Amino acid sequence: MADTLLHFINISQIFLFVISILFGLFFLIKGLIKQTPVFLLGIFMLIYNGSFFTSIVRDNNLFEFQDQWRLLPIYFGFLEVPLLLFYLRKITFPKLSIKDYLLLIPAVLEFFMFLFFFLNFEYSELRKLPVFNIMLFTHIFFNLVFSLLGVYFLSKHYKKYKQKYARSGKKQLLFFKTMLASFSIYTILMLNFILFDFTNQVRFLLVIFHVAMTFAVIYSAFSTQNITCFLRTTKNSRSLSKDEMEVIVNTAMSFLISSEKYLEKDFLLPDLYSHIQIAPHKISLAFNTILNRSFNSLINSLRVEKAKIYLKDNKYDQYKIEVIGNEVGFKSKSIFYKTFKEETGFTPLKYKTSKEAS
User: Fold this and answer.
1) What CATH number was assigned to the domain covering residues 242-353?
2) Which of 124, 130, 183, 233 is the most buried (most CB within 10 A)?
3) Nearest-10 crossing angle of helices 295-312, 333-344
């Protein structure tokens, strides 16, 4: 049983190390090229599972392992939570303040302390000194406090600005709130390391947690890799030329028609922004200027065009008219009838039966 557990831990650590290198570099490079905050999640993945390096070398006898390598300055426990908080800060309010960067001070000190330990102490000797355990306790306390503070401030921010987020933004914020809260589990496992050393059971639980956290970060990174900020901006942009507005209209219309996202009942302007990465106020300006329509008016006209297809298609004869309205994204029968008549001059029923409407 013990051998099976060790084998599982070993395989899992290798797996986590490899996918973290691959995905971490991918999101780091993509984020830097596209100038999106996802590069922070890339860095997080690289350091979060990079700490398994010495365990992998030791457990697989890749080359002669020395305990001293455990003091290599490649562990960035004080950087994990700040990276997640920086990412959240960037996708809510893009500009980081000088005060935000103060969170990096413990990580910098940690690096130099490990470098000092590596050069001046043996691991077995250092492990017995109070300073080593004090540093680990500080690391645990730091992650616990700031992850819970992150949950608190994220809850306040979400409550205050909830109406300014599209559904995708709300979903990601709530998901990250759960991730930050889960770091309390991580701190408990690390506390076991200090008090009882790394038993196989603790290592097993730690690996399971790393697997869950890693896939959660990969999911978030893929979901937000093209996002610069989820919060809908209210600032006025510089005036747009007619050519720029036509490009915006063509981009938006191409996406809407190909994806048919307008058929979703709660599809809003911030949702369109999250897909095409053009500021909401620019989209509105372009629609109003080039198409002489508001965003909502355009979405409803696209829904009506889709309803017209359904009403004239014999395959949908068994559908009630209100069902067709629901299928194309209208929330109620009355809104569907009113909008349809405004767009076509016919009620849906008259359009369905009228040859003239064909």
Assistant:
1) 1.10.10.60
2) 183
3) 90
